[in-house]
């Protein structure tokens, strides 16, 4: 994908946005999905598709007690797994993908979660979003995760005009400094949950208001 050309004015505008995000949300790294191992985060992220992190954390609290090892997941009965994860939605596909993914990790990777995006995206149920969650949180590889908050707010800020998550990812890789890729994800997720919410954004409270290009802002 061709690299997007960024003007000096755009760079300066992005720097001001990032400085405000850093000041408000700090530069502390925080993962919203509870986990103790890389494979637990991988499974939690698969479960998080079309589901809130809060719900996933409720489910995995018992799930990771019942299935203590990756081998336990690889040997799991799919019908029982469906019941265990039912409340996260899309449980048929998620159960199938989790078991298949666990089997691949056990048989082909010795139980280790790979760090490169090519290997990660070959695993069942793992797209670029899930792969980048692993790369950023486990291996600290600069990665951009395009979830619903990042997609929506990045568009409002004029950092991308795209709708496709992969195109948005590459736009943000061009416009954001690499040392802020992971932080931007975390900060925008927090912003989308507290201030720039999807249903009723609190425009009057938003410190990014001067930089917002959303025509519906109040």
TrEMBL record:
Protein name from the UniProt record: Endonuclease III
Keyword Nucleotide-binding tagged: no
Organism per entry: Anaerocolumna cellulosilytica
Stretch forming the signal peptide: none
Names of the cofactor(s): [4Fe-4S] cluster
Pfam short name (any one): HhH-GPD
A GO biological process held by the record: base-excision repair, AP site formation
Cofactor binding note from Swiss-Prot or TrEMBL: Binds 1 [4Fe-4S] cluster.
EC number: 4.2.99.18
InterPro entries in the record: DNA_glycosylase, Endonuclease3_FeS-loop_motif, Endouclease-III_FeS-bd_BS, HhH-GPD_domain, HhH_base_excis_C, HhH_motif, Nth
